[in-house]
Amino acid sequence: MASFLFLSVLFSFLRFTSSIPSIGITYSSTVSPPPPPLPAKVSSLISALKITSVRLPDPDPSLIKAFAPTNTSLFLSISNSHLPALASNGSVALSWLRRHVLPFYPRSKISLISVGNTVLDSTTIQDFSPFLLPATRNLHHALQELGINKIQISATFSFFSTITTAFPPSSAVFQQPAGDLIIKPLLQFLEQTNSSFLINIYPYNLFRLNSEIPIGFALFQDNLFNFRDDPVTGIRYFNLFAMMADAVLTAMAAMGYQNIPVVVAETGWPSGGSQAEEVEANGVYAEMYLKGLVRHLKSGAATPLKKDGVAEVYVYELMDHGGGNNERGRKWGILTENMTMKYNVEFSSGAKNSGICLVAIWLTNWLLITSMNLILGFIGVQG
């Protein structure tokens, strides 16, 4: 019985270890310093950093092609401006795929395509939300027509324009009327096609909006006061990222779609702010956030509510933009404009593999010891 219990716990640990979310990076080529680095240089750099997943918000075909010799998984995005045409005509979806996917796939390991990005953002001048679901369906049908069945199709949302509250996470629901009109039918589509729900989670932005949030709670720091208890579930949260992720999972569960994987399409902490009062936007805090995020994800506890609730996380972003500012007015890159590293952060998933190897060693040693005990016991009985 003891042996059976030991093996049960051991194999449970193996399953737990293998569910660590992958950690990727975003590379925005159209806002890189002029002139932008050659695609081959970008793909080589990302491979050298041991980053195995890349999100391309503006997927130039030459850049997609450059990743063909690598083992990098690609997450492509289609800009919001393309949604009306994609929604109105299936041939437009086929044309987009023939330019961005068909010439390179499967050598370039395209795994995911987002149709639009933060279409519910209230700051957007044009409302693209009516085109979201038809465009998503047309792209999915176009993939099937081409005989490609292993690329997920989804859409990316912003936490702040989608979820009602971060605390307590158990009270979170999708904002209305978009929740029922747009997100619920999209979740149904994602469930039918075995795709993931994509959302941008920025603890920095929530910290900026709420002065009651301790900086250590936002930066994954261990401190006696860096926790929040959900009064309904009793779950204790030790960082803001996990709290926001569980709010997303709760909102999905409230609509009956708790089994759809969640991909965090963007997260990060800026090393420079767009305003003078953004004193927390600095390199020290940015490195603390990234190290804490990686440590948290590699621990296998992406969210307390659901251990496998977050499948992938993409850090925003690879490089600072020319002039030190991007379209959000902040420096988010893990590299400077000159492509030098700003932080000492290990993004590779080596911890996952080493954990599995360690358990394998323990299992081998245990089996050897158990076998020897059985043999000795048998000899003793015979004697």
TrEMBL record:
Organism: Gossypium mustelinum
UniProt GO molecular function: glucan endo-1,3-beta-D-glucosidase activity
Entry's family note: Belongs to the glycosyl hydrolase 17 family.
Entry's EC annotation: 3.2.1.39
Signal sequence coordinates: 1-19
InterPro entries the record matches: GH, Glyco_hydro_17, Glyco_hydro_17_plant
Gene3D superfamilies referenced in this protein's UniProt entry, alphabetically: Glycosidases
Taxonomy of the source species: Eukaryota, Viridiplantae, Streptophyta, Embryophyta, Tracheophyta
EC class of the enzyme, as a word: hydrolase
Reaction(s) catalysed (UniProt annotation): Hydrolysis of (1->3)-beta-D-glucosidic linkages in (1->3)-beta-D-glucans
Keywords for the protein's UniProt record, in alphabetical order: Glycosidase, Hydrolase, Membrane, Signal, Transmembrane, Transmembrane helix
Annotated GO biological process: carbohydrate metabolic process
Protein name per its UniProtKB record: glucan endo-1,3-beta-D-glucosidase
TM stretches of this protein: 359-381
SUPFAM superfamilies assigned: (Trans)glycosidases (SSF51445)
